[in-house]
Design a protein that fits this description.
binds protoporphyrin IX containing FE; single chain; 3-stranded antiparallel sheet; mainly alpha; 7 strands; Peroxidase, domain 1; peroxidase
Amino acid sequence: MRLSRSLTPFVLLFVVAPAVSAGVAILRTDYYQKTCPDFNKIVREAVIAKQGQQPTTAAGTLRLFFHDCFLEGCDASVLIATNSFNKAERDDDLNDSLPGDAFDIVNRIKTALELSCPGVVSCADILAQATRDLVTMVGGPYFDVKLGRKDGLESKAHKVRGNVPMPNQTVHDIHGMFKKNGFSLREMVALSGAHTIGFSHCKEFSDRLYGSKADPEINPQFATALKKLCKNHTVDDTIAAFNDVMTPGKFDNMYFKNLKRGLGLLASDHLLIKNNRTKPFVELYATDEKAFFEDFARAMEKMGTVGVKGDGEGEVRRRVSCQTVNHSFQVPSRELKGFHFCERGDPISSRCLLFDVRHLLFDVLRLLFAVRRLLFAVRRLLFAVRRLLFAVRRLLFAVHHLLLCPYRCSSCIFSIRRRLLCISLDPSSLRHH
Ligand code: HEM
């Protein structure tokens, strides 16, 4: 009780201006009730199957969602694949370790949904809903997921740095990123509780173990075990340790209890107990799991609304995989306060003219290819007819041969002038018939 009263000034920090987004207004929990009534069921079933097969999916997906939302909003831009013209977010070094299983679960759900209600559910909504279901599956709190996000149209690797926190940053710098997205210090600590599941690769915390920068505050037994685990990490960069060494697969408040005992894995984790402003929240969550769950659930619900895109700012990706945008032609639109997506023969803007010209060229090319294909088909048909005629001719010759070749001949052949020649047993005695 005394603890929560002492936190009162910090509670005020909870109320900070959220990252304003035009799309938030359209979000509703029942957004797909009419257009895709099986949405909840399809997501749940896919999540249960995947987490059963691959228990690391929950942590990976939670981190994927966080990295998506913190870079220009929850718009599934982190799922877009790199192409020859653009290096996408997911291929930046900081996103390198986002696990394939997290991408896979979103694509699996998208495929199932496209069969049930094609072109309706955005990849961003799938990621948000799957994350919630996975968190609850591993023991975390339930929170509402409002739906109706549109998928983003661009994904730039160079924008990742500065938007996604790194373990070697200060509390001040990390909080700067959270603040930019509308989160208070308390919410930042609650969200960091996500490190109660999943793992981190040795390179993320090896600085704390070896050399002059080794962290004296890390629990000595824990440090010894980590040194042993990571001794070959420079040759094998897949070696990783659990974020929560005590209950790694369970979503609980053990992460905060660990921090108090020097069992925090990342430098940024440990800073939360060292820093005077974040420490009270760590203490609270370590002793009161209910408080942690409530704050985490509220903060996650809020994270799902960061920078959400509405109509005119995004689209519903139509492919069964969430890694490509539908089409990329867009022009800035004052009327829509965002971007307008050009359609064929678009009357709305003369700026779409270029789009029409491009499409006209594509149409001409498509026509030329179609004509070429038609010509090939005609050629193939003519060859087939020719082969048929040859076959008929051979058949006629054979019949002719059978009828005309006298029984005394051992064989008959046609001469160059198509006259039947009889070959008798004595090849020298060729006679004309
Ligand atoms: C506060 C600043 C944060 C920093 C510096 C940070 C950094 C990291 C790093 C370096 C990893 C290890 C990645 C790897 O080696 O594979 C990691 C893992 C993870 N992070 Fe964070 N993170 C932060 C906050 C968050 C938040 C807010 C969430 C979610 C709400 C989150 C969710 C996770 C999860 C679930 C994992 C485990 C991933 C897995 O097992 O695949 N993190 N984090």
